[in-house]
Amino acid sequence: MRSPDPRSCTVALSQDEVARLAQLARIDLSPAELAHLAPQLDVILEAVARVTDVATDDVAPTSHPVPMTNVFRADEVHDSLPVDEVLAMAPDREDDRFRVPRILGEEQ
Amino acid sequence: MDASTLITTSAADLAGAIATGEVSSVEVTRAHLDRIAAVDGAVHAFLSVDEEGALAQAAAVDARIAAGERPGPLAGVPLALKDVLAQKGVPTTAGSKILEGWRPPYNATVTQRLLDAGVVILGKTNMDEFAMGSSTENSAYGPTHNPWDFTRVPGGSGGGSAAALAAFEAPLAIGTDTGGSIRQPAAFTGTVGVKPTYGGTSRFGQIALASSLDQPGPCGRTVLDTALLHEVIAGHDPKDQTSLDAPVPPVVAAARAGDVRGLRVGVVTELGGEGYAPEVEANFRATVDLLAELGAEVVEVSCPTFEYALAAYYLILPSEASSNLARFDAMRYGLRVGDDGTRSTEQVMALSREAGFGAEVKRRIIIGTYALSAGYRDAYYGSAQKVRTLVQQDFTAAFARADVLVSPTTPTAAFRLGERLDDPMAMYLNDLCTIPTNLAGNAAGSFPTGLTGDGLPIGFHVMAPHRADDRLYRVGAALERALTDRWGGPLLNRVPDPATTTEVTR
Which ipTM did the prediction report? Predict the structure, then answer.
């Protein structure tokens, strides 16, 4: 991807760049979707880039509408959700565990 | 009461009739299930109907009342629950194929509070996938149709909940509001919808879209019904770190009073003018004049950074959504595709998410991934968070001059199905008036104030400071009282009967 300029967010996302983002997001987009999405994303990103117009250095960012404080619950033993009920919704299981596909890909 | 009376009676009156034994909850529930069977093929407000569960809940309420209990002010009244809230053992999909058939092993706090209060849950309502949308056309299960005109959208993302009310399939509904998903559908369907102050209702068990913006809230056909539901679901929840540990504002008392004398009403200069339909503007001005007639003091207020709120929202939302939706990875629940022993976890994740997510979800996840990627984070996400600060400062200044702020809920009335599907920016502009409150966490609501020449509802948007949700109900109830008199009955008396409207093929 191009090197970013925080003061100038004008973009022109190529299909290759959208494919790279989709890979990062773990979505296997088809070529037709890439061709359809790339121009739409361009329009959206161009529109939202206006935030830099007023986001000057003297403005503090706000991540949340109310002040956030960490909340600790009492360190007490409770029953967890029933294992069978949770695993009943799993795509696959083996004994009392979730069964997942192999971890290593071709490149490993 | 006959069946047609049961489905048109307010929730407050139904609860009263059930409590005194005039009618049973089972009879009321049966009447609504029959109505759903008769009209939902055309409306498509529901994704699933839990007939057996609803009748069992109703019978339990009847038994409690027969035993001399008074289980609560909405006990025995049916409700439609947005499919984004977990209900134990009942399909919960968030409108997505990736969760098709998933039955949660637990209840959301909102769901649990409804059940504890004896509210009868009829089923789960249609919605834009993962609450991403302004029309309920992004549902993986097909769109909901607006009962006022089946060729129009009911709004989104909670179009199913709003349409269920307008089609008399349920007297109460629950929505969730991230950028207007309760209020905009309320405006498009002539119903009432309130987004409580952020933290006022628990998000535990709500399938998260954007955690700093999402908020469950009540939907109803009358202001009092909505307030009663608000009190049932609101209040501190230790399971939600963002839940406010503070008393619930006196919303029911405010709805009963409906008095705006002396209330300072601020008209937001920036939420009107160019881009707003003339009929919407005219209705808004007439409603402001009505509030003045009713004794409110009207002032103009300026919120100059609201014009950047939409852009900030459409960076913050996808950023949080891309993170929240990472949990749909085909490992512990939901759809799994391509697990034939030859593919890695990563490949199965990518194939499953490709197959399970719809176009709008993919669009927003990719924008979020981009906005949070190395080097772009400060420019996009960081700048958007600064705009959020500025929007909050605008609200603070405006609320120093006015007790509530008002605007149209939406720039236009309901648009046609399909009209904006390929133009995401046109779709996003619908949320122009509702988004600032989500960024700042304020309370806000939409109340029906009229119809366009085409017979489509128009909503009036009221915004209140944090924890002052009761002010919304004061304004809403005053308007409802005055306008019902003028109209000679509730606006929803004029909705066409779906049974006599040409059925739309989905």
Answer: 0.90
Q: Do A28 and B242 touch (CB under 8 A)?
A: no
Residue B5 is inside which H or E element, if any? helix B3-8
Cα separation, B461 vs B447, in Å, equals 7
Please state, in angstroms and rounded to a whole number, the distance separating the CA atoms of residues B398 and B305: 12
Q: Residues B277-310, buried b or exposed e (16+ Cβ, 10 A)?
A: bebbeebbeebbebbeebebeeeebebebbbbbb
| Helix (H/G/I), strand (E/B), else coil: B345 | helix
Distances (CA, A) of A65 to B195, B238, B392, B503: 14, 18, 8, 44
Q: How far apart are CA B167 and CA B165, in angstroms?
A: 5
- Cα distance between residue B320 and residue B85, in whole Å: 18
Residue type (1 letter), B333: Y
B42-64 residue pLDDT tens: 999 999 999 999 999 999 999 99
DSSP-based three-state secondary structure for B284? helix
A58 at interface of B, judged by CB pairs closer than 8 A:
no
The answer to whether the beta carbons of residues B344 and A105 sit under 8 Å apart is yes
- DSSP state string for B392-453: HHHHHHHHHH-SEEEEESSSSSPPBTTTTTT-HHHHHGGGTTTHHHHHHT-EEEEEEEEE-T
CA dist., res. B302 & res. B3, Å (int): 49
Q: What is the pTM of this model?
A: 0.96
Residues of B in contact with A31 (CB under 8 A): none
CA distance B315 to B33: 41
Tracing tokens 């001399």 back to the chain, one arrives at B68
Q: Which residues contact A77 (CB under 8 A, 6 or more apart)?
A: none
Count CA within 13 A, CB hemisphere, residue B444.
Answer: 34
- The amino acid at residue B301 is V
B354 contacts on A by Cβ (under 8 Å)? 27-30
Interchain contact, A55 vs B363, CB within 8 Å: no
State the pLDDT at residue A10. Answer: 52
**What value, to the nearest 5°, has the Cα angle with vertex B301 and ends B298 and B305?**
155
**CB-CB under 8 Å, A29 with B362:** yes
Closest CA to B280 of B407, B101, B186, B365: B407
CB-based contact B161:B82 (threshold 8 Å):
yes
Q: Is there a catalytic annotation at residue B82?
A: yes
| Nearest alpha-carbon partner for B84 in B209, B218, B227 | B209
Per residue, the 3-state secondary structure of chain A, as one string, reads CCCCECCECCCCCCHHHHHHHHHHCCCCCCHHHHHHHHHHHHHHHHHHCCHHHHCCCCCCCCCCCCCCCCCCCCCCCCCCCCHHHHHCCCCCEECCEECCCECCCCCC
Q: Mind listing the pLDDT tens digit for each residue in B129-138?
A: 999 999 999 9
Distances (CA, A) of B308 to A36, B302, B317, B391, B483: 27, 14, 14, 8, 34
Cα–Cα nearest to B387, from B463, B307, B322: B307
